Amino acid sequence: MCGIIGYIGEDNALPFLLEGLEKMEYRGYDSSGISVMSENKIKTYKKCGRLEALKNTLASENTLVSSIGIGHTRWATHGKPSDINSHPHVSQSGKISVVHNGIIENYISLKNFLVEKGYKFISDTDTEVVAQLIDFHYDGDLLKAVQKTVSDLEGSYALGIICSDEPDKIIAVKKDSPLIIGTNYGENKDKSENYIASDIMALLLRTRKIYRLQENNIAVIKKNSIVVYTPEEKILNPEKDFELANWDIESSGKGNYEHFMMKEIMEQPEVISKTLTSKIKNGEISFEHLNISDEYLKNISKIYIVACGSAANAGLVGRYIIEKLLKIPVEVELASEFRYKEPLVDKTTLVIVISQSGETADSLAALREAKKQGAKILSIVNVRGSSIANESDYVIYTSAGPEIAVATTKAYSCQLCIIYIFSLFLADKLNIMDSSDMSKYINKLASLSDKIQEILLKKEQIMEIAKKYKDNKYAFFIGRTLDYAVCMEGSLKLKEVSYIHSEAYAAGELKHGPISLIENGTLVIALLTQDKLFDKMVSNLREVKARGAKIFAVTTIDHKEKISQIADDIFYIPNSLSEFSPSLSVIPFQIFSYYSALLRNCDIDKPRNLAKSVTVE
Ligand code: M6R
Prior knowledge:
Layout: E1 3-8, H1 13-23, E2 31-38, E3 41-48, H2 51-59, E4 68-74, E5 89-90, E6 96-104, H3 107-116, H4 127-137, H5 142-152, E7 155-163, E8 170-175, E9 180-183, E10 194-197, H6 200-203, E11 209-212, E12 218-222, E13 225-229, E14 235-236, E15 243-244, H7 260-266, H8 268-279, E16 280-281, E17 284-285, H9 294-298, E18 302-307, H10 309-326, E19 330-334, H11 335-338, E20 349-355, H12 361-372, E21 376-381, H13 387-391, E22 394-397, H14 410-429, H15 435-446, H16 448-456, H17 459-469, E23 474-479, H18 482-498, E24 501-506, E25 523-528, H19 534-545, E26 550-556, H20 560-564, E27 569-573, H21 581-599
Parallel strand pairs: 18-19, 18-20, 20-21, 21-22, 23-24, 23-25, 25-26, 26-27
Antiparallel strand pairs: 1-4, 1-10, 2-3, 2-4, 5-6, 6-7, 7-8, 8-12, 9-10, 9-11, 11-15, 12-13, 13-14, 16-17
Helix pairs in contact: 3-4, 4-5, 8-14, 8-16, 10-14, 10-18, 14-15, 16-21, 17-21, 18-21
The structure holds 5-amino-5-deoxy-1-O-phosphono-D-mannitol.
């Protein structure tokens, strides 16, 4: 979704702003813009469409040099994508320029108030209200004007603000939307310069030394100083709270791959191995920094897994694993539903929030709701220091590294691994697994990376299958229990990147309605990894075959004889414990989705209308 970038220092801000915007393109956007200061005036350039359009406009401005600037990539919420609705938004007086991520919920009443005061609005956005309101409160002190403005705002907002009367500072504000400050470091350390961004990827070009602005705080950023103000007007010196980001700029590049999605699919053996080795040492599971008491763990009566999209699909796998290994009831809820459904949670409920970005608005709101009701929150998050991580009682980080493709692959896989390891950890704490079973599970976990590698080596086989079905208009994924959970993810992956409409069904459900859609040539993708359900699945496949379906089956080699009699295409995955099969069976689905999208000329890394991190409700 929207991205913020800002620079103040000694160099020309423009190249940094444009590079930063480019690094945030993966988040999804429909327009971009920048404001810089030239001859004591704010100059703003904004363009609907790809960043290229903005760069083309700026190409003729070769005399534009400014040591301060803010920039933005917009994903439209209020008002259609257009040049005028793009950010930055500049106040009527031309003095104040603002970039904003989030939503100002009370913008209509504020707009009416400002209209009465004589302000004229030119855009449909909520953000223009912020620029005009700061202008209204401004009497020569930008900080005071911003403080007054935020006390009038309701909603979520990360803001970057500049003012032509105070060209020595950027003001940054954070409420319910991420904002980080970077400072010169390493090769750059002799320069006086500071930066802001909503996404660490945009800062890695210059620095890994970052400060995460805390909720409701306001920072005044000059080229050689950063001062942070709390809502109570306490002044903080952030120096001791700077941290070194553990991601580097190389890991955020495409390497030799044509697309981030394939690069990230291919990285899975490595990141899974990293995730496992960070938690399993000498055959023993340890969550060193978790600080979760045995007493609390023993009293857990119910677990909720709350998440969105693929993270919720990882939760579906989690439900089967936890219920099987721990015999604790688990409910999996979409965060957007959980937050409004008056969930039955209390202090014996553990709520597990899963999120790659750690910033998904619905997941964050669900977390807060659960906390309010007295539950403890354990989050499984990829981005360090993100809002969900910050607000959880316990955090387990996945070691997926930066994930740039909008369609998640490696982060989902790492989430599965954490679910397996945490379940085993809990089984150990609750004394419900003997040591030989524990060793068996741990050994099998350790072999997952190699098995995934085996599948990846055969990716061309899946490409050939994708070629056969690339023109299909729709597809059904079917499976039972854990396979059904993986089908949910396979189906989401296929539709989001290739735009082939697909639905996942529990195979037993077909007869209750969806089978009426099966006709000659309908693609049915079947997953059969659960030995004891294999024959049931074959019966379901016979039913669709009899109605003309084409079947692409993913199963293990042991089933070769039976499956070859019915499936049109087959991909074999290595054997594994049935509990861990999702980590293997999801890989062919990711690859099939990738090649389907490639063959259909889709924008694989940035599918239409999607954003990497969904920071609005
Ligand atoms: O950052 P999160 O894991 O909280 O994001 C949740 C979903 O938005 C995300 O998984 C989405 O469904 C992906 N596009 C799926 O590939």
